[in-house]
Amino acid sequence: HLGNETLKAQLGHSSWHLLHTLLSRYPKRPTPSDRESLRTFLHLFARLYPCGECGQHFTELLKKYPPQTSSREAASMWGCAVHNRVNERLGKEQFDCRGVVDKYKCGCDDAEEEDAK
Ligand code: FAD
User: What ipTM was estimated for this complex?
Assistant: First the structure.
């Protein structure tokens, strides 16, 4: 039986992984529809995140730091910065955001080959 804190940490770890990977695959040149989709996704993600206080805090962060949707780089750097705000609140170390786009690979070869062009 895993304690609540362990489960919360596992959920957080997987959620951040998904979020950073999603942002590292976001289009380099997003259409208006891509931008609206990301903005909406992040607000719904915060609203539905299954840990009351976490989602609530994340909603506050979204208000304070509106999602940057203008490019892959901007979105990834934004994701790294808000994760750092959460790290700060939890007394965790700050993460170095340089190279965050390259750190999170999706394992989808076609997309990564496309990038190499
Ligand atoms: P995590 O913070 O889960 O990070 C996982 C890995 O990502 C790290 O090992 C590192 O390699 C990398 N990483 C770290 N920082 C960054 C960064 N800035 N950018 C990119 N990569 C990075 N927990 C609570 O107790 N209270 C809360 O209010 C709370 N709010 C949360 C809100 C959201 C939206 C999410 C997704 C999670 C929240 N959590 C909260 C969970 C918490 O953030 C951690 O996920 C959890 O404590 C496990 O931490 P961890 O040490 O495994 O590292």
Answer: 0.98
| The residue to which tokens 């394992």 are assigned | 107
> pLDDT tens digits, residue range 89-116?
999 999 999 989 999 999 986 666 666 5
Q: Say which residue the tokens 């190499």 belong to.
A: 116
Domain ranges of the chain: 20-116
What is the value of pTM for the model shown? Answer: 0.94
What CATH topology corresponds to 20-116?
Answer: Four Helix Bundle (Hemerythrin (Met), subunit A) (1.20.120)
Ligand 1: list residues with CB < 6 Å.
8-9, 12-13, 15-16, 20, 49, 53-54, 57-58, 80, 83-84, 86-87, 90, 95, 100
Ligand 1 centre distance from Cα of residue 47 (Å): 17
